[in-house]
Amino acid sequence: MRLKRMIAAVLCAACLVSALGFSAAAEGETTQADNSKPYLVLGADLNADQLATVLDLLGVKDPANYQQNYNVSYTTNAEEYEYFGDYLDASVIGSKAYSSILLTPREKGKGISVTTHNITYCTVEMYQNALITAGVSDVDLVVAGPTNISGTAALVSAMKAYEIMTGETLSEQSVDAANNELVLTGEIGQEIGDSTKAAELIAALKNEVFANGKDVTDQEIEGTLDRICQEMGITLDDATRQEIIDLIKKIAATDFDVAALEQQAKELFNKVENVLNDLTGGDAQGFFARLWNQIVSFIQNLLQ
Description:
Strand content: 5-15%
Number of helices: 14
Shape: globular
Order of helices and strands: HEHHEHHEEHEHHHHHHHH
Distance between the termini: 26 Å
């Protein structure tokens, strides 16, 4: 049954896709993107030394001329509070926006790749899952801070860059759900001492709950959550449990794009290969083809 749950976890993180909207660009931001250039979003409060450090960590070429070589925009601390103020304590958000990102489009169907430098609160999996929920797909994301920072601003920056890159307007409702998911997953990770397992829990729960549509009751969410927690050996306090239920209800109110499943599933499958090794006694490769066939079959049934 745990193996089945892990397959579900792979599928579900890719099945919720929608959109977001950002306020007008800050003074000096790129307003019309040149699609031949990568997308660089910088924390608005970086000083000169911090900027040099961040550009180096992001792998920016010819940093002295970055404004000419990249589509450049900025994320402010006020935007962090706008998007995370309901979910994070001020001590976590801080008073300055330092985290910065480099976003590059990937070939369609390649999924989301994330690399981080000096980010202490947000894990790779947290960024990836939240971006998928918000509607981002097929990008290479590098996140960096000048020193160890939480990295919350980077999610806002990544979605802003994606909006500029694609010319799409992403819905505020879906982004709010994504922000909520990012923060709550981090809190669950701290509570159970395992951020990766926390991400798997939320992913598996979304898939189980929405397998038959969005019309689900509180009792169905609660029962599914209890079963998955039991199977994964996770114990949650009552407050966290209720926050998860509320999150799932919020996500249920967003749009679904089932067609996005296939292009994201393989990328996400690779990220749980280590878990499969644990579950199969180190023989994940022997199961890979059969498990992937099951995933593809499941997706095809949904698309019929």
